[in-house]
Design goal:
Number of strands: 4
Structural class: alpha+beta
Strand order of the largest sheet: 1-4-3-2
Distance between the termini: 44 Å
CATH topology: Bacterial Protein-export protein SecB
Largest sheet: 4 strands, antiparallel
CATH architecture: Roll
Mean pLDDT: 89
Oligomer: single chain
Strand content: 35-45%
Number of helices: 2
Length: about 160
């Protein structure tokens, strides 16, 4: 291998996507009916999950991307738990064509963040006295297309 394969990114002019940092912006877990709801259960809980993504420009090439995850579990009308998470990443995007910026921010960046956010939700539910909630993988392309169809993302 030649040394050119190990050159730094400074000399590159192609598209670049870097994760600068990741962090929890907001996390909550509510267990309002404990200890009644943390023991053996007579039936399976109804679990609903919400997923959203957003991005905001912080600088010329820096963007904050947020995955918002929410989950609640109920048996009949009794709430077992409610958890909400805003998990963020600070990304540096360089030489990304303008028409590709939005899909990179709302599809590719959330794909990178999702495994970490999923683990935080699993840990929170486990630490709350329940089996860990492992959220199914998210189709970020489908979510992006749905938001575009509904007019939430400009064309």
């Amino acid at each position: 291998m030649s040394d050119e394969n190990f050159q730094g990114l400074e000399g590159e002019t192609g598209p670049q996507l870097r994760v600068l940092t990741q962090y929890i912006k907001d996390l909550s877990f509510e267990n309002p009916n404990a200890p009644r709801t943390v023991g053996p259960l007579s039936e399976q809980p109804q679990i609903s999950v919400r997923v959203d993504v957003g991005a905001q420009r912080l600088g010329e090439t820096e963007f904050e991307v947020t995955i918002s995850l929410g989950a609640e579990a109920k048996i009949q009308d009794e709430l077992m738990f409610l958890t909400e998470l805003d998990y963020c990443g600070l990304f540096r995007l360089v030489n990304i064509p303008a028409e590709q910026l939005e899909p990179v921010l709302l599809v590719e960046c959330p794909r990178m963040l999702f495994p970490f956010a999923r683990r935080i939700i699993a840990d929170a539910t486990r630490d709350g006295g329940f089996p860990p909630l492992l959220i199914d993988p998210v189709d970020f392309v489908g979510l992006y297309q749905q938001r575009r169809t509904e007019g939430e993302v400009p064309n």
